[in-house]
Inverse folding.
């Protein structure tokens, strides 16, 4: 079976790696991002790809920066048949891409050429797309710009979050990759160039993008929090304090209140947004506390809020 250098970091990459192993491919190395400190206690945590690789007794490489590293030279000298990447998180030097015998292939979580970049799944939700998917593509020096071998689309359901889409696409990506690699080997795979006129970029999410603002409609606010769930999460500033919103729903009713006001705090916790739209908050996390259902939040906060009062800062 063909040899592969696998490169991936988050949970998205794990089904792909395990699928390659189960199919019998010779995994020469697993390259992933360095361990990092996570959470309030700053506990050193292995990447999901590293955990999977260790379970499978595969050699792991974790260069801080691949380009110019000793690890890069070792990987180049392996002259594997394929490089396969699935959300690795670093650019790959051209000399590394050129070191493989057959092809360097990427499992990308979008329907290219839409959403090139590091956050395609997040942007598909934030922008309210009806579909997303996976593209198996040839890797080139330019980011996510290579020719496409295969694509598969799925519908985005109303309850989907970035977390649920990541999980769905990881398995779809695995299966599509395993269908595609043999075709690349025997020469039956066809490559389709991307239409440059339809390119859309999805750069990494910034801190500023995490904030829900009153300029948004309820639907836009809901799309944002779905797109940023489970990481890093979206928040609004309520009476000077950060309030993370993990789950909400767009209400059926509308309001004449200005955006950012309490519409209801009895049977629900409803906030007005742009164009008279209303968002029902369902799961919240006040600063310094754990996630909680809105009912628990209101039990301790209801007396502080008055219907008609503006509590969300612009």
């Amino acid at each position: 079976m063909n040899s592969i250098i696998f490169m991936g970091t988050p949970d998205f990459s794990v089904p792909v790696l395990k699928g390659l192993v189960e199919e019998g491919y010779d995994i020469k190395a697993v390259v992933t991002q360095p361990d990092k400190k996570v959470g309030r206690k700053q506990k050193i945590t292995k990447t999901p790809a590293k955990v999977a690789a260790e379970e499978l007794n595969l050699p792991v490489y974790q260069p801080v920066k691949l380009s110019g590293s000793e690890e890069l030279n070792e990987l180049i000298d392996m002259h594997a048949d394929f490089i396969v990447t699935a959300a690795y998180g670093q650019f790959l030097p051209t000399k590394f891409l050129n070191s493989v015998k057959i092809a360097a292939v990427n499992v990308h979580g979008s329907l290219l050429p839409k959403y090139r970049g590091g956050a395609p799944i997040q942007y598909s939700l934030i922008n309210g797309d009806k579909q997303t998917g996976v593209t198996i593509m040839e890797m080139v020096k330019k980011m996510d710009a290579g020719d496409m071998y295969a694509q598969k689309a799925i519908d985005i359901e109303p309850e989907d979050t970035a977390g649920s889409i990541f999980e769905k696409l990881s398995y779809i990506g695995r299966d599509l990759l395993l269908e595609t690699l043999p075709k690349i080997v025997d020469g039956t795979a066809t490559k389709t160039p991307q239409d440059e006129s339809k390119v859309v970029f999805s750069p990494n999410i910034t801190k500023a993008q995490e904030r829900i603002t009153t300029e948004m409609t309820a639907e836009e606010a809901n799309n944002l929090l779905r797109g940023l769930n489970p990481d890093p999460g979206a928040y609004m500033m309520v009476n000077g304090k950060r309030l993370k919103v993990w789950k909400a729903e767009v209400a059926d009713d509308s309001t004449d209140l200005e955006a950012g006001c309490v519409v209801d705090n009895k049977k629900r916790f409803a906030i007005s947004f742009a164009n008279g739209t209303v968002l029902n908050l369902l799961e919240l996390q006040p600063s310094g506390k754990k996630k909680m259902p809105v009912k628990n939040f209101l039990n301790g906060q209801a007396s502080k809020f008055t219907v008609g009062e503006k509590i969300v800062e612009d």
The longest strand covers residues 241-250.
